User: Fold these one by one.
Assistant:
Number 1:
Amino acid sequence: MTNPLQQAEDANAELLTQRRDRWYPQVHIAARAGWINDPNGLCHFGDRYHVFFQHNPAGVVWGPMHWGHVWSRDLVHWNRAPIALAPSLPEDQDGVFSGSAVVTDDGTLAVLYTGHRVATTAGHDMVEQCQMLATSTDGMTFTKHGVVIESRGRADFRDPKVWRQDQQWHMVVAMSSPQRRGQVWHYSSDDLMHWDEGHLLFEDPDPNVYMVECPDLFRLGDKWVLLYGPMTTARPHGHVGRNGHNCGYVVGDWNGTQFTPLTDFTPMDWGHNFYAPQTMLAPDGRRLLLGWMGSFAHPLACQEDGWCGQLTVPRELRLDDDLRLHSSPIAEFSQLGRPGKDLGPITVEPGQPLTLHRGSNPVEVCLGIDLAASRAEQIGLRIHDNGSGRRTWVGYDDLSERVFVDLSTVSETSGGYRSARLTRPNNDSRDAATRTADELCLRVIIDRGSVEVFADDGRIVLSSFSFPVDSERSVALDTVSGCATLTSVRTRPLAPHWNEPDRG
Ligand code: FRU
């Protein structure tokens, strides 16, 4: 009988024969074929960065979860590795769910993950989730050591994020309380095998939040950031609840046992498709993050093509004095591709769009928008507009003072537009003189099937799928109702980030 890992590889190879690349990412991590969701086990081990991810190797929808695996030496060029973990024990028989990785003092890579099992008792399905340990000496093949924190008798108990601090291992893990409140629990251990009883670290104050997913607690400067994905029964309002999944953060103090929030919950990303991010500490001290760009709202255009879901580009996080999180593509990302054109300074008139890029290959565009000189109501990039009426429209709306991604003509995705307000110091009392100084920089990473928009020094980020048209693609600078004045317009055609052909 073939082992579960080999079975998964065989199923994935079969699916790969059906893969089409109309939307397949060139500068984002995705499965060779099949479905992915959350990034897992981000770490630096053996001179390599490792990224694992939730993966259904045999289908384009969520299914039995495995851990897919890619690695890189420089966070820019990526290599595929065999599937790392498959369901194989009674406790993880229905899924090797999300988790994290740490390197022990003796140089072993240890991953803590959630074992997911649906037990049928007296005709009823009961979900059991427990925390499990697996280790590896080469970063490629893993030995499972079974359960280290038992199921709590409740369905939702998952997503351990582990780190080392003060000679101890610490874990945050998500739980739904008996009263159906979304909670984060903290556990500690000396050896990763034996964990204490655990205690409640944080409960989302919103009673509509019945569970939180993928908690991550980490230090930035002298504060601590608690990232998580609240699952809510509330109707969509504003940004929160508009996507199937939302995630954000609370900043606070942490003394090793207690977390004291200092801020309210703030969304982390304002786009259509961002969820379940995980962070890691790079050897040089940077806090890096990757998120899942995906959706459970089906169908998605890429599902016709044998794959579904991708990760964001790696981002670096920092916290500002107002305790707002900023995320920017890591500096290394600029090594990908070659500098293209700089067309600025330039003025664009309505009805006269300026084509910046042709074809489906990825490109990065940086716009410096002179807000004082521009008269336009909207300024932005018309992505893959071939006149069919379908296009992704990304830019800045001067009436609402918001950065937006408008997918309202692209029906395969969750649709609609998403936006984030550009708040500036003294925004309310701003007079013409302050405004004259204003320049808005928009950095847009356009891959075959996605856009990521970074504005206001990374305080605003929108990550969205973008599947408008699969022919005659182009990216054009455009303006609505008035001229747009740009101080700079830079393009950077991006080269694929895979080191080897992936259809071997
Ligand atoms: C978040 C999540 C996690 C879980 C995993 C299962 O997207 O639901 O809570 O561990 O995905 O794939």
Number 2:
Amino acid sequence: MMRLVILISGTGRNLQAIIEAVEDSRLRAEIAAVICNNPAAPGLQLAERAGIPTQVVDHRAYPSRDTFEAALREHIDSCSPDLVVLAGFMRILGSGFVQHYRGRLLNIHPSLLPRYPGLDTHGRALANGERWHGASVHYVTEDVDGGPVILQGRTAIQPGDTPEKLAERVLREVEVKIYPRALAWAAEGRLGMQGSQVVLDGRILEQPEQLEQLT
Ligand code: GRF
């Protein structure tokens, strides 16, 4: 059974979606631990309610990013994960950390990468008059939000959308669907990373898979 360690910082909507996918057998995996850098994160209650071991590693308790990431790695590696899943984790991870987990570190980003890496993706997409917006599940590399994209989903931007309304729709219509689906591919042994490209069912993905095109 594939073992996951999930890193969160806040609400945990993506965490909850993954928990539910495990509970109803859409995702054959074991969540070995939820690790959080924010002791007040609501997502910690979601993990505890699901009976998942939790660990707070508060970045403010460490003198540097390196010592914080060394503590993170110690807790993560003690769980022997097959995959490390960033789910609303809001700290930038250094190259040593990323190299250590290369090929088994995933993230979800609320935009149609490579468009809108970084923060405030919804506000920027609206300001640019985009027709479509969405979210991407990708492998994490040293290039922040620049790793190879596995699966995307999109939603049409609507008149009257605000960043908050758009963010909620992207979370509800896209994020909570694409993360469990991409993780299920990994759990079924279908997903990998070769060099800086995604491999799915033995073939290099030239373009990310699109949720709306999946059966
Ligand atoms: C989500 O928009 C996710 O894409 C981003 O953080 C936001 C909050 O995620 N990485 P969650 O509710 O904590 O899962």
